[in-house]
């Protein structure tokens, strides 16, 4: 006997599996504005700045007869000196104001003595 076995002709068949999902990620820049509020508070404070003013007060003392008798009151002059400069005497300091007041007082005193001698 002969072993002549024939195989039948079977055509090729294609079968599809369900698809596999593959994800690919792509990243793109997106501008996101973030607002940071800033509150500015303006505070005003008083700071003392000293302005020194000097008022000249002149007193008269009568030294006659060895006794110190003060005259009737004192004179207050309107010469105000701010800091070291006098507004009444431009360019001169406090010393000039005092000497000016003294010279005026001497003139006033000498005119009184002349009028009393007459």
TrEMBL record:
Region listing for Disordered, in residue ranges: 64-118
Biased composition (Basic residues): 66-90, 103-118
Name the UniProt record assigns to this protein: Spore coat protein D
Natural source organism: Paenibacillus phyllosphaerae
